[in-house]
Specification:
Blueprint lengths: L6 E7 L4 H17 L4 E7 L4 H4 L8 E6 L7 H11 L4 E5 L3 E2 L2 H12 L4 E3 L5 E4 L1 H10 L12 E3 L6 E5 H6 L13 H11 L4 E3 L4 E4 L15 H13 L2 H9 L2 H13 L1
Parallel strand pairs: 1-2, 1-4, 2-3, 6-10, 7-11
Antiparallel strand pairs: 4-9, 5-11, 6-9, 7-8
Helix pairs in contact: 7-8
Length: 266
């Protein structure tokens, strides 16, 4: 079992379907069995549901709740609250529905120790895990039966889902960009911004496994009502030279709040 006690695993969630609940249970059970690291879960919704859906896990993980009336899931906001609540030098931003073999977590962590600021424990390729295969993961708690031959393509090149981060670099780079709402573009923006600001990213070989679940069209891609706004934000960041980008990041309210907290704690 990889010993990653210096790494906080950050999982943002909104319980929007039974498939989401099932997948999160699979992910939590797998991580608790195979990765020795503190896990922090942040739920965002009108009222908390974690105690109802995850009673067998809540005494083994940290839990935050953010109340909101917003009809969309503000994942970037959740991740920033989790990062500010964590006190380890390294972070692992982890979706509710992805997994990689335990050895990949250990390899990615080692790259952080060697000086990388952001590490993807996969090479960009993301494969879909079917409901039948998810049931088998739950039964034996391994990914040994999964392969490129048994899992269809989900996406050829991703920059999210499962990302190791040096916490100090993450804070200096502005954390997650909360101008992104719902899903779409936030992962590409983050890796672009990190690179523009001089932080080092790395990947390791092997795919990311995505556990299938219902995907409401209004939540993703061009179906997301915030798609156009998210795309404009990404293009804005993409067009900025480093100094202009640093100045822009300094104006973000969540960055200013983070700096205020740091001054008060000093």
């Amino acid at each position: 079992m990889p010993a990653l006690s210096d790494t906080s695993i950050l999982i943002p969630v909104r319980f929007d379907s039974s498939g989401r609940v099932r997948n999160l249970k699979v992910v939590l059970r797998f991580l608790l069995a195979h990765v020795q690291a503190p896990i922090l879960l942040c739920e965002e919704d009108k009222k908390p549901h974690a105690r109802e859906f995850l009673p067998e896990f809540l005494d083994r993980i940290g839990y935050l709740f953010l109340e909101t009336d917003a009809p969309y899931f503000h994942k970037t906001r959740c991740l920033n609250h989790l990062a500010r609540a964590a006190h380890t030098p390294y972070l692992l931003s982890h979706d509710t529905d992805v997994l990689v073999p335990p050895s990949k977590y250990a390899t990615a962590h080692a790259l952080l120790e060697r000086g990388a600021d952001m590490v993807f424990p996969y090479d960009g390729l993301c494969l879909t895990v079917s409901g039948e295969q998810i049931a088998r993961i739950w039964a034996d708690n391994t990914l040994d039966h999964l392969s490129a031959e048994s899992c269809p393509l989900h996406a050829p090149r991703l920059f999210g889902g499962c990302v190791f981060l040096r916490r100090r670099a993450f804070m200096e780079a502005g954390m997650e960009n909360e101008n992104f709402r719902s899903w779409g573009g936030e992962d590409d923006e983050r890796v672009t911004r990190f690179g523009r600001l001089g932080f080092r990213a790395a990947r390791i070989a092997g795919p990311l496994f995505h556990l299938e679940h219902p995907r409401p069209p209004e939540h993703i891609g061009t179906g997301n009502p915030f798609y156009a706004e998210n795309e404009r934000e990404y293009q804005k960041v993409l067009a900025m030279p480093p100094e202009a980008l640093r100045a822009y990041v300094a104006t973000w309210p969540w960055v200013q709040e983070m700096k205020k907290e740091a001054r008060e704690d000093a």
